[in-house]
Each structure stands twice: as structure tokens, then as C-alpha cells.
Specification:
Elements lengths: L1 H9 L14 H19 L16 H13 L2
Helix pairs in contact: 2-3
Length: 74
């Protein structure tokens, strides 16, 4: 993890983490508003770019992406 963090710093990539256990819809629902807020904050500059992922790649990351797209459509 230290090498990864050093690479982020060298590339001027800001890491934002919201630890959410996988496969628990209730906990995901509780943390989703905070995750959406963090993502909106990261996208606030007009040149803001993000990479959203979760370790499993089947639940948390895609749910956050869908939530931010749904929110911006309102």
C-alpha cells in the first residue's frame, strides 16, 4: 500500500476512500450519501476526473457510479 500511495502522490492523484463492507446493502445504503458527496466534491472542478472502483468490482463502485448519475439527472 505504501508504494501505491507514493505513486499517487508522485502523479498528483488525490486518493479518497470510503471503506464500505461488500455485500451488505444496508451498510452500503448508510454510506452512499457520504460517498456521493465525496464524488461530487472531487468532480467539482470543471476538469475534475475520477476513477471509482471497489475491490470486488460488482457492487460498491458501480452503485456509486449509478447514484451520482441518477442524482445529476434530477
Amino acid at each position: 500500500m505504501k508504494k501505491l500511495l507514493a505513486a499517487y502522490k508522485l502523479a498528483a492523484i488525490e486518493l479518497r476512500r470510503i471503506p464500505i463492507p461488500d455485500f451488505d446493502r444496508h451498510v452500503l445504503g448508510m454510506h452512499l450519501p457520504q460517498a456521493v458527496e465525496e464524488l461530487e466534491d472531487a468532480l467539482a472542478p470543471s476538469s475534475g476526473k475520477v476513477y471509482v472502483h471497489c475491490t470486488a468490482g460488482i457492487n460498491r463502485g458501480p452503485t456509486l457510479a449509478a447514484a451520482i448519475l441518477s442524482r445529476s439527472a434530477i
